[in-house]
Write a structure and sequence with these properties.
single chain; 726 residues; mainly beta; 7-stranded mixed sheet; 46 strands; 12% helix; 41% strand
């Protein structure tokens, strides 16, 4: 009734065969039903064998899952589920016909069918009927269209599916005639038409192409990058001077003692003393004339006290009087003026800032000449937060500045490369903005080359990842490896003196936080070293809490194990230096960085040829010019659409006598591999040492022989290629 559903008065059709894509066959029962058990989940294909249908029945499409024609259907089966796929038939008064044929490949050259015609197998040649129905040839070159209604039709061959370098003819009366891939025909009732085709292959195509290769390896000289960014730390003393006076009062002296002890303990600290006043004018007739002189005198007195009492080098202290120029509040009330009468003590770290640390790279570049490079360009992608360090790039011992630099890349031009050469190229990146540096930085490098014809080749990228840990702090102290025994997390008694000074400092400054980071050498497993570094840091934290009654929330612990060494682990002294605990004072850090670094790609080998597409582009008609007195490289490229029965080929290359260094002038290249596809391409890299003097033009002879089951097929081709030595 046309509703495409199974109604009660519609009968099932028995004896219809269905075939799955894995070869499973099943036949419908007397009710037209079928069931296929034990089918894996996923998408499957069911196809009806039309020969099993009753006469004058046709399949009606009742699902969008049919594959271009009604016979095949996609069925999706979920794991553990049941998929239902009904097929609808209907009676027809039409007497359908059939179209079939085969694609042949000729071994002779007469275009007349004989014993030298072979079916073109495994080539998936596509035919299209009426611009809607598509079929492909099977493993013998055979195709068929079934259930075709009578009438006028059009059939064509998809030219893109034909083997490369081949020409197609239509077979008429056992002879091949040219045609334009498609034609119209009329199909009568119950007719069976056959259209056969002949594929004529090209002669063996042999071509030479110049060859070069670029190999490149990158070494990350900076194994791990740790950036310690020292920031100023300010102590504000809001009392200690009588109004208009410069003498130190006892209340400020007790505070200055703590500052003096800190500067003696941390000898790298620099102190800047900033004196400030309110805006009340100095009484006329006083020794000090104005507020600026008053603030300067107060700052000088603090500096003098620290030098006299603690023998601190005066070069480490700078005293500045600002007067009333930098109030913290308006001077309108006594309370505000009291806050403006203050001394700010800014402590900075005089250690060499780790912002001067660099990412150092070294590249080994090997170029085998053969394709002259007119432009050799190397581009370095700069990771976030870094920039190229000016003057650091060298090729060999020669400094080479980049042609272009930006926030994201640096580009160098290496000029013309015509002959083989090996070069070492190095450069450095350094931090530009520590806030932009990511925990893991990806560094990428690639090369762009242009040959004499203007063809540009861009290499795949070299990539390397590196941990770039960034931490902010005011200053740090280091418990060296001598404070721990090898493989132990127990503090030695000698560590107590340094930790007691730290504890006293934290008791004086209860709002200051610290981060304790444990490190080890690289002996032993990574897991053990990470745990050992954590135990050592925890031992320091425990000592500070128990001996100085510190708040545990004031102290963080990080375990970094063998990462970020400060010395060479190959020596006993170096390993001792790496077994350490660092205490970062007033540090601003997040959670501990989990270090998981995979190196993406540290080397590549790029092959170059001219022409760039050696199978499509002829190179000067199969001739090549080589330089005299050097090693030269070129590709021998052969292309043959071949035979269906060929399973191996032999290629023999014979050189002129003056190439005696090349295996006595004779070289045989045997390809013993079976090739299931009709299109065969062979490329072989030849390396020859050309004589010192110019020879002029000579010939290389190429002999190409096909085999099937170790028997020669009667097809032997010889080609001559010209080679000139200048």
């Amino acid at each position: 009734n046309g509703n495409l559903l199974k109604d009660n008065n519609e009968i099932g059709i028995a004896g219809v065969e269905l075939i799955m894509e894995n070869g499973t066959h099943i036949v419908t029962d007397s009710f037209g039903k079928y069931s296929i058990p034990n089918v894996s989940s996923g998408i499957h294909v069911l196809r009806i064998n039309e020969r099993s249908l009753p006469k004058n029945y046709e399949i009606v499409i009742n699902s969008p899952e049919f594959l271009r024609d009604p016979r095949s259907r996609l069925v999706k089966l979920n794991s553990g589920g049941i998929a239902k796929a009904n097929f609808v038939l209907r009676k027809t008064t039409q007497n359908y016909g059939k179209i079939e044929g085969i694609f042949y490949l000729e071994s002779g050259a007469d275009n007349i069918q004989d014993t030298r015609w072979f079916g073109v197998g495994d080539s998936d040649i596509t035919l299209i009927l009426d611009d809607t129905i598509r079929v492909v040839t099977d493993s013998t070159g055979y195709y068929q269209f079934e259930m075709i209604p009578p009438g006028l039709h059009h059939i064509r061959v998809d030219s893109m599916s034909l083997p490369e370098r081949s020409a197609l003819s239509k077979i008429v009366d056992d002879a091949a005639v040219a045609f334009n891939y498609g034609f119209d025909f009329t199909l009568e009732d119950n007719a069976r038409l056959r259209f056969d085709y002949l594929i004529n292959k090209d002669e063996l195509n042999v071509n030479l192409s110049q060859y070069a290769s670029l190999s490149m390896t990158t070494k990350m000289l900076t194994k791990e990058f740790r950036l310690l960014n020292y920031k100023p730390w300010t102590l504000t003393l809001g009392y200690g001077f009588l109004s208009g006076k410069v003498n130190l009062q006892p209340v400020i002296i007790s505070e200055l003692r703590n500052v003096g002890k800190l500067m003696v303990w941390q000898s790298q600290l620099i102190l800047i003393i900033n004196g400030h006043t309110d805006n009340i004018p100095i009484i006329p007739g006083s020794i000090i004339k104005n507020n600026k002189e008053l603030s300067q005198a107060r700052a000088d007195n603090i500096k003098k006290y620290l030098i006299d009492e603690y023998s601190i080098n005066g070069k480490r202290i700078k005293a500045i009087g600002w007067g009333d120029e930098q109030p913290v509040l308006d001077n309108e009330t006594d309370a505000a003026r009291s806050l403006n009468r203050r001394v700010e003590m800014v402590l900075t770290n005089a250690e060499e800032s780790s912002e001067n640390n660099n990412l150092d790279f070294e590249f080994e570049i090997g170029f085998i000449g053969g394709v002259p490079i007119t432009k050799f360009e190397l581009t370095q992608i700069v990771p976030s937060g870094f920039e190229y360090l000016s003057g650091s790039a060298k090729i060999g011992d020669e400094i080479i500045d980049p042609e272009e630099t930006s926030d994201s890349l640096a580009t160098w031009q290496f000029g013309e490369w015509e002959e083989s050469r090996d070069e070492s190229f190095s450069f450095s990146l350094h931090p530009k903005n520590f806030e932009d540096i990511e925990n893991t930085s990806n560094v990428r490098t690639f090369v762009t080359m242009t040959d004499s014809s203007g063809e540009e080749t861009k290499t795949e990228g070299l990539e390397i990842n590196i941990t770039t840990k960034v931490e902010e702090l005011s200053f740090k102290m280091v418990l060296k490896g001598t404070q721990f025994d090898f493989g132990s997390a127990e503090l030695k008694p000698s560590a107590g003196e340094s930790l007691d000074k730290l504890g006293e400092f934290l008791s004086w400054q209860p709002d200051v936080g610290i981060v304790i980071e444990g490190f080890t050498d690289n002996w032993g497993s990574l897991e053990l070293n990470i745990n050992l570094s954590k135990w050592r840091a925890e031992a320091v934290k425990k000592y500070l809490i128990e001996e100085h009654n510190l708040n545990p929330l004031q102290i963080q612990v990080h375990a970094l194990g063998p990462y970020y060494p400060v010395a060479d682990n190959s020596t006993r002294v170096g390993r001792a230096k790496n077994r350490r605990v660092e205490v970062l004072v007033n540090a601003e850090v997040g959670e501990e960085v989990k270090i998981e670094i995979d190196i993406a790609k540290e080397s590549f080998n790029q092959e170059l040829s001219f022409p760039k597409r050696p199978f499509e582009d002829d190179y000067e008609g199969g001739s090549i010019t080589l330089n005299a007195g050097q090693t030269s490289y070129f590709w021998l490229n052969l292309h043959d659409i071949g035979y269906g029965l060929v399973d191996s080929v032999e290629i023999v290359v014979t050189f002129p006598e003056f190439f005696s260094e090349l295996n006595d002038g004779y070289r045989a290249i045997q390809f013993g591999k079976k090739f299931p596809k009709i299109s065969r391409r062979f490329s072989h890299l030849l390396e020859i040492n050309t004589p010192k003097g110019p020879i002029g033009t000579n010939e290389i002879k190429i002999r190409y022989q096909r085999y099937y089951e170790n028997e020669k097929i009667d097809k032997l081709e010889e080609k001559l290629l010209k080679i000139r030595i200048e």
